[in-house]
Structures are given as structure tokens and as C-alpha cells.
């Protein structure tokens, strides 16, 4: 493609609202433009990259036995009510009504639609297994869209759904998709890790995330330095070392703690260790249930673990009216003498015998708290966030943290949706059985942004060959007829051999062309200058490594093709 004919509106300056590198460079390199918050138009250069990645995904999905289809983005609410997710999914579900006042939603995912489709068509065990996938635009009403397409309200996703006879079949389908995902990201040249993950509002049991490691990742990857254990911080576990804190058997007593609202302030005021203070965090579920989470002062509540324990999708910090209803005070809340609330305690508080808790009165705490004596709770649970440096539960190694961007996730759904939709088949004995389902998603546009986060420098993007919008960027410099003629001949020759070429035939200065070439980031740049051409040479630069060298003129197309083979 010739740049003089192509719409590539590059920018010299970084847009003020672009916070992360991928967002900045996707705008500056002319890959996309913002329509409104969290919604973007993909320009020709950006759409080239998207199609490249989609083709890799299609090839590996087809190779794994999945079949492509396309389902509607506009979905009737009745299906979501049938799965009980219309309300449970939360405010991210974009809801609307048609002219007949019927409820619909814009699909953030397609479990309901695909299960409805299959339950009306599959009758016999002979029709299974089945794996269906699509590449389609999804919609989620993010409370705070940010980081460009890393956290948008409209995005492109590949989602696949498997249907099997039994658990063994589901395990095989899951492994096939897991392996296909590894091949996809390997082909893209991305550094990634697979980690144990939470299933979230989609539900199901086993789940793995594919995380591209990057400095601006929205997720924290917890991994062991001695074994292959890795998990999202939302799900990570570590060895919890408990000790009984020495203390007397004195009864609970109130003490004044003026203006000491934080754990650190309370510990300092009472001259105790932070791990003697019990943190009480008040939550409200989407069903209106009030929950008081107790955790040792040196830890934080893991809200995903807590939500999973409670069997809820949405969990929010309680509002001011809830504190008034319970006759307690924010910053001084405690589990003793509080109103009607479900108390959930972390394992970390189970050995506290001389602790400190809120007194449910302003500027007041209770000392000499004994967990076993003062609370009538049968069990404690793991609802804490692990810390870097703690011990791995599998081998005792040290846990470390890294930032990552989730680009794909696979789930074992089991019978969550087939039971809700009565998606059954007749087995060999003629008995009705529920299908076992799996779900498999890849963020298409998110992966593109993640690839940029991992492949850039101060000058622009450094595309991996598999994702590059064009493989070769030709830069003729100056107005010499010989240079222009050579550039046109090489452009035609390379294009005719199937090489993807971007020819900068604009009437621009050399500096502008070089800057745009680095910004756009094609893997190979070939410069044709009057002096080098007279010497029988073309200048070549590898964008990834920065390596520069020359090739002799004559049979250049074959030589460039060989260079591309070296990069593949």
C-alpha cells in the first residue's frame, strides 16, 4: 500500500488523555481514534493488525476442531433471566428496551445465546462433542473506561463454547483450547504466563488466564520462584503462619481512641502491633445482605475470595446509611454488639487472644479481644490477599509479584448453563443427560494493545512479525528519478511475491519519513537513497533489534524474503 493513498493520520504530540504507552501509540501511529469514552474507531492501519491477529486465532481454533459462526450482539433479556444473570451480572450489562418495551441487552458474552441455540438442535450423544466460536464486538458498561482498548466499553473478542457428553470430554475440550491458546500467543511472539484464575460472573469451576507480562498490567500475577505455581492475585494462596499473641484473659473493655480511624493509627495510639488489631470491613451484596469481614490488621480483604465464598457476583462497600442502620460508626466498626449482619472471619484472626476491635462508637475501641471467646463462629476462611515474599503452598518457595494484562481466559462451566436452559441429549441408553460445557475467550483488541505494551521504545511500536500491519516499510528519500523508479519497481516486485509492503511515497522530508517509520513499527525498513543506490546498496533496519546493515542491489526481493524468514 502507498502511504500517499492511505489514511494514516499520525500525530507528533501525545494526546493528553492517553495514560499508557499502548493507548498513546495506537493514537499517534494512526491505528485508531476515540469516538467517546471507552469506544474507538479502528483506522486502516489498526484494522490490518486486528485482521492479522484474527487470522491466527481462526487458524488455531479451526485446527483444534472448533467451528466458526456469528451470533447476535443484541440479546433478549428473557434468556438472561433464564440463567438468572440479568440482574446478577451487575451494572456492566448494557440494558435497553425496544419500541414494544421489551427488555434487551448488548452482549458482553454469549453463554445464554449459544446454549439456547444448541438446546434446540442437539438431540443425541452422536451429535457431541461440539465446539462453536465467533469473533465479534462485545459491550460492557465499564464504570471507568481507561487505558484505551485495555479497558473499554466496546471491544472485539473471540469467544468459543464447547459441549460434551461428560466430564472426561470437557477435560479434553478444555485442554485442546488451552493448547490452542498457547500456540496463538507463541505465534504472536508474546511473553505470557498461564495462571489459575477466578471465573467471575461467567461461573464454572476450573479456569486459567493467559497474562501478557507488562509494566502497566491491570492484574497482578503471583508466581513461585521455585515451582510452576502461578495465580491471579484474586485467587492466589500462600502459607499463613499463625501464632497466638500472648495476653491475659481480661475481659473486653472500651478505651478512647480519638481520631484513630486507620489500623496504623489505632496500633500507634494503643502501642500495639498492627497484627493485634482486627480490621472490620462492612460490605453489601447485590441481594442486600450485609457482611462484616474480619481480617488481621496487616492484611487486606480479597473481595473476590469473599464474593466466591458468599456465592455472589457483586459485592460493594456499605454506604453511610448501612452504618446508621447497624448503629455503628465507619472507622470504628467491630464484630461485638453490632446489629443484624453476617460475620465472616479470615484464618488470620483465629489465634488472636489479646486483640483490638472497633467498639461501634466514635473514637472508641475494645481491647483484650479473644476471638475464640468473644465470637460464636464455627469456622474461619481464606479471604485475604497474599503478600509478596510469603511461602508457596505447593513447595515452600518464595512468592513474587508481576504485573500482567489478561488477554485470554478458559473456563470449565460444567452444567451451570445446560441445567438452567435444560440443554440435554439422549445417551446410548436413551436417558436424558445434561451437556457439559466449557467457555473460552480471547480479547482481540486487548491483545493488540498488550503486544504494544511489550514491544515499543521511545520512538514508537516494534511489531512482532506476525502482528505487523505490513512486513516491510519502503522509504525512498529525495526526488531523484532513479530513487523513485527503484522504489516503485521494488514495491511491485515485493507485492507480487506476497510480501506486505508499505511504500512511503509522500513528498516529505527524510526526517518525517524516518520518524513515522519508527512510530508505525514495521519489522523491516528498507531505505532507498540516491547515494547508497549509486553505490549499488539498499539500507536495511530491523525495527525490533535496531540492527542496521546494507544489501546489494539486484534480486532484492529474494534477499528481503530471506530476511523475513530469519525474523519468523
UniProtKB/TrEMBL annotation:
Protein name: Proline--tRNA ligase
Any one GO cellular component localisation term in the record: cytosol
Short name of any one Pfam family annotated for the protein: tRNA_edit
Subunit structure: Homodimer.
Subcellular location(s) of the protein: Cytoplasm
Annotated EC: 6.1.1.15
Catalytic activity: tRNA(Pro) + L-proline + ATP = L-prolyl-tRNA(Pro) + AMP + diphosphate
The organism's taxonomic lineage, starting at the top: Bacteria, Bacillati, Bacillota, Clostridia, Halanaerobiales
CDD domains (UniProt xref): ProRS-INS, ProRS_anticodon_short, ProRS_core_prok
Aminoacyl-transfer RNA synthetases class-II family profile domain mapped to chain residues: 38-464
GO molecular function, one term: proline-tRNA ligase activity
Protein encoded by which gene: proS
Function: Catalyzes the attachment of proline to tRNA(Pro) in a two-step reaction: proline is first activated by ATP to form Pro-AMP and then transferred to the acceptor end of tRNA(Pro). As ProRS can inadvertently accommodate and process non-cognate amino acids such as alanine and cysteine, to avoid such errors it has two additional distinct editing activities against alanine. One activity is designated as 'pretransfer' editing and involves the tRNA(Pro)-independent hydrolysis of activated Ala-AMP.
Biological process annotations from GO: prolyl-tRNA aminoacylation
Main localization (coarse): cytoplasm
Comment, domains: Consists of three domains: the N-terminal catalytic domain, the editing domain and the C-terminal anticodon-binding domain.
Entry keywords, A to Z: Aminoacyl-tRNA synthetase, ATP-binding, Cytoplasm, Ligase, Nucleotide-binding, Protein biosynthesis
Family of this protein: Belongs to the class-II aminoacyl-tRNA synthetase family. ProS type 1 subfamily.
Domain of life of the organism encoding this protein: Bacteria
Amino acid at each position: 500500500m502507498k502511504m500517499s493513498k492511505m489514511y494514516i493520520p499520525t500525530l507528533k504530540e501525545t494526546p493528553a488523555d492517553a495514560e499508557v504507552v499502548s493507548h498513546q501509540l495506537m493514537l499517534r501511529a494512526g491505528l485508531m481514534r476515540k469516538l467517546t469514552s471507552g469506544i474507538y474507531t479502528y483506522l486502516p492501519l489498526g484494522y490490518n493488525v486486528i485482521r492479522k491477529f484474527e487470522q491466527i486465532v481462526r487458524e488455531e481454533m479451526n485446527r483444534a476442531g472448533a467451528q466458526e459462526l456469528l451470533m447476535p450482539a443484541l440479546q433478549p433479556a428473557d434468556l438472561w433471566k433464564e440463567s438468572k444473570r440479568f440482574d446478577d451480572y451487575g451494572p456492566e450489562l448494557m440494558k435497553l428496551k425496544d419500541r414494544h418495551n421489551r427488555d434487551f441487552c448488548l452482549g458482553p458474552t454469549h453463554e445464554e445465546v449459544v446454549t439456547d441455540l444448541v438446546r434446540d438442535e442437539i438431540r443425541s450423544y452422536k451429535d457431541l462433542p461440539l465446539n462453536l466460536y465467533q469473533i465479534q464486538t462485545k459491550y460492557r458498561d465499564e464504570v471507568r473506561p481507561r487505558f484505551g482498548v485495555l479497558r473499554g466499553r466496546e471491544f472485539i473478542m473471540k469467544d468459543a463454547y464447547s459441549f460434551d457428553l461428560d466430564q472426561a470430554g470437557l477435560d479434553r475440550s478444555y485442554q485442546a483450547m488451552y493448547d490452542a491458546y498457547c500456540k496463538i500467543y507463541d505465534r504472536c511472539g508474546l511473553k505470557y504466563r498461564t495462571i489459575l484464575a477466578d471465573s467471575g460472573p461467567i461461573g464454572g469451576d476450573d479456569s486459567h488466564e493467559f497474562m501478557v507480562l507488562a509494566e502497566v498490567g491491570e492484574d497482578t500475577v503471583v508466581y513461585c520462584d521455585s515451582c510452576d505455581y502461578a495465580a491471579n492475585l484474586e485467587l492466589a494462596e500462600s502459607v499463613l503462619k499463625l501464632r497466638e499473641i500472648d495476653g491475659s484473659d481480661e475481659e473486653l473493655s472500651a478505651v478512647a481512641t480519638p481520631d484513630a480511624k486507620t489500623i496504623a493509627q489505632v496500633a500507634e495510639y494503643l502501642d500495639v502491633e498492627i497484627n493485634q488489631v482486627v480490621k472490620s470491613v462492612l460490605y453489601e451484596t447485590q441481594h442486600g445482605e450485609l457482611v462484616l469481614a474480619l481480617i488481621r490488621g496487616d492484611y487486606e480483604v480479597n473481595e473476590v475470595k469473599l464474593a466466591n465464598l458468599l456465592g455472589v457476583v457483586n459485592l460493594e462497600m456499605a454506604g453511610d446509611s448501612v452504618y446508621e442502620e447497624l448503629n455503628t460508626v465507619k472507622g470504628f466498626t467491630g464484630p461485638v454488639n453490632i446489629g443484624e449482619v453476617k460475620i465472616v472471619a479470615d484464618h488470620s484472626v483465629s489465634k488472636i487472644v489479646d486483640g483490638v476491635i472497633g467498639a461501634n462508637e466514635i473514637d472508641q475501641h475494645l481491647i483484650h479481644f479473644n476471638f475464640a471467646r468473644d465470637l460464636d463462629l464455627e469456622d474461619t476462611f481464606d479471604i485475604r490477599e497474599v503478600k509478596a515474599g510469603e511461602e508457596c503452598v505447593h513447595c515452600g518457595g518464595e512468592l513474587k509479584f508481576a504485573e500482567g494484562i489478561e488477554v485470554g481466559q478458559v473456563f470449565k462451566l460444567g452444567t451451570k448453563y445446560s441445567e438452567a436452559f435444560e440443554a440435554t441429549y439422549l445417551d446410548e441408553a436413551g436417558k436424558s443427560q445434561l451437556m457439559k460445557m466449557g467457555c473460552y475467550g480471547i480479547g482481540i483488541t486487548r491483545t493488540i494493545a498488550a503486544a504494544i505494551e511489550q514491544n515499543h521504545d521511545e520512538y514508537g511500536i516494534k511489531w512482532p512479525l506476525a502482528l505487523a500491519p505490513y512486513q516491510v516499510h519502503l522509504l525512498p528519500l529525495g526526488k531523484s528519478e532513479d530513487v523513485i523508479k527503484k522504489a516503485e519497481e521494488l514495491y511491485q516486485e515485493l507485492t507480487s511475491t506476497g510480501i506486505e509492503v508499505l511504500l512511503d511515497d509522500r513528498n516529505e522530508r527524510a526526517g518525517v519519513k524516518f520518524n513515522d517509520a519508527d512510530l508505525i513499527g514495521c519489522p523491516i525498513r528498507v531505505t532507498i537513497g540516491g547515494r547508497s543506490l549509486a553505490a549499488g546498496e539498499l539500507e536495511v533496519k530491523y525495527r525490533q533489534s535496531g540492527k542496521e546493515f546494507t544489501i546489494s542491489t539486484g534480486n532484492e526481493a529474494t534477499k528481503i524474503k530471506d530476511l523475513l524468514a530469519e525474523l519468523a
